[in-house]
Amino acid sequence: MRIAGVEMMREIDRIAVEEIGIPASVLMENAAIACVRNLDLTKGYFVVVCGRGNNGGDGFAIARHLYCMDKEVDVFYISEGSDYKAETRTNFRILKRLGVPMTPLSGETMWSFREALKDADVVVDSLLGTGVARPVRDFLRQVIQEININSRFVLSVDVPSGMNADTGESMGQVVDADITVTFQCMKRGFLNYEAMPHLGKIAVEKIGIPGPVEAKAEKGEYLTDHSLACSLIPIRDKTGFKGNYGKVLVVAGSQGFTGAALICTEAAISTGSGLVTLCSREEVFQSLVLRLKEAMSLHPDKLEDGVSRADVVVFGPGLGNFDVTFDMLLLVIKSMQENGGRSKTLLIDADGLNVLKDRTEILTHLDFNVILTPHVGEMSRLCGLSAEEIQKSRIDTARSFALEHKCIVVLKGFNTVVTDGSVVYVNPTGSSAMAQGGMGDALAGMIGSLCGQGLEPLEAAVLGTYLHGYIGDELAGERYVVKASEIIDAIPGSMKRLQDSRK
Ligand SMILES: NC(=O)C1=CN([C@@H]2O[C@H](COP(=O)(O)OP(=O)(O)OC[C@H]3O[C@@H](n4cnc5c(N)ncnc54)[C@H](OP(=O)(O)O)[C@@H]3O)[C@@H](O)[C@H]2O)[C@@H](O)CC1
Ligand SMILES: [K+]
């Protein structure tokens, strides 16, 4: 599914109407029907609050549909300001002629508005959509406050009124929706954490604009679809043997952090790697060797040799933020350069990222694929922005870092961002039930494993991230929290089910 900002939505709208010739009134009608589909029609009394733009026009059309269904409807509308656009005017006039109760909002009608909001089963918010163009002040601000204070359940049309759909920021006052029915594409601003408390559940509804029209205006930003993830799961040949499914070398684990090494290694095995080898720091090497079953081990003295034989190196979990970790990373990079090839991949996670602080220039001229999997703190160390700045623009931060350093960035967190600097996939799976130590180690092992099985690094990152969160969501249905080891146990079954579901 495509992600769009305001300018892209306008362009999609323009192409659909002006170049293709789909009447704007048809789009508005489809938008209204999509909203009605998301209303609880067992309820009896609806209040629709309309602004003067096309978002208001959607609201007038929604009110007509509810009226046709014999629902009790009250429409309140902003009457001051510029003239209605054609489609909005048409829908306004139809309601007038039908005799649907309509009240212009003003100081005098505020009391009856408030009482209607309190009585309504559902309030439809169609004051402002993507066209919010300046700070929300004075009267409109008061109207939004009244909606927030007095409503039982709010459906926001396209965008919670008062939210900037590009950034997710409040323009002064924002409607607190229970559900936001947004049209055609996921809005970019909705992915900002600041926006989330206002959005409620998000339903993205198509309103009759064909995919190729969207494609003409797109900016290479997508939400990972379930069907895309399913289609990326590698098909295993009946005659395949372990040599066909990738040699993964995990470089991980030091004193106090042996779990990270084991989790990463086992995640790679459960995701389907043919041969997985663990190389850890000397002080924990013997104890880790005893705990490995399916994986092989490699003494750190043989690191260079091990790297030369691997298709994929996953570097960093639990290695410690020490100079020796940086030295190991340099050795891995040197060995990959010498024995490399474009098909090889280095995934750097955790302490592998921490030791890159102020040294990221070493990433820019490598002849093999590089994937970085930072959480926001690690990203902050890598790029020098504060965590707060990054959270406000997760897509842009990840995208520009990936572009500059010629690597793939997996910026973890809710709505993990995966990008190679050119295209962006935002991951919709996963939740805070997975917020536990070890989760990132499992993800690193999963992505590394998928690279080794022949997926392009970007595909591996997109699928690994989706699967990791998907399994977490499945397990969280029955649990308060989900452990990394539970994810690992569930990987093979979930991959099989998802793969079978595409047939
Ligand atoms: N894209 C599509 O394919 C389709 C889009 N559709 C719908 O159209 C919506 C976009 O419509 P839009 O462009 O008319 O803008 P919209 O959000 O109604 O706001 C404009 C109005 O708000 C006013 N206004 C703005 N800021 C203000 C402020 N701070 N405080 C006070 N007033 C303020 C501004 O007033 P003015 O500046 O003119 O005085 C103007 O009257 C979109 O979200 C979707 O719902 C569907 O119908 C189907 C197809
Ligand atoms: K709205």
TrEMBL record:
Organism: Youngiibacter fragilis 232.1
GO molecular function terms attached to this record: ADP-dependent NAD(P)H-hydrate dehydratase activity; ATP binding; kinase activity; metal ion binding; NAD(P)HX epimerase activity
Name used for this protein in its record: Bifunctional NAD(P)H-hydrate repair enzyme
Gene that produces this protein: nnrD
SUPFAM superfamilies: Ribokinase-like, YjeF N-terminal domain-like
Documented EC number(s): 4.2.1.136, 5.1.99.6
Record keywords: ATP-binding, Isomerase, Kinase, Lyase, Metal-binding, Multifunctional enzyme, NAD, NADP, Nucleotide-binding, Potassium, Transferase
Stored PROSITE patterns: YJEF_C_3 (PS51383), YJEF_N (PS51385)
NCBIfam families associated with the record: yjeF_cterm, yjeF_nterm
InterPro entries given in the database record: CARKD, Nnr, Ribokinase-like, YjeF_N_dom, YjeF_N_dom_sf
Domain YjeF N-terminal: 9-215
Alphabetized Pfam families for the sequence: Carb_kinase, YjeF_N
SUBUNIT field: Homotetramer.
Biological function: Catalyzes the dehydration of the S-form of NAD(P)HX at the expense of ADP, which is converted to AMP. Together with NAD(P)HX epimerase, which catalyzes the epimerization of the S- and R-forms, the enzyme allows the repair of both epimers of NAD(P)HX, a damaged form of NAD(P)H that is a result of enzymatic or heat-dependent hydration.
HAMAP family according to UniProt: NADHX_dehydratase, NADHX_epimerase
Cofactor: Mg(2+); K(+)
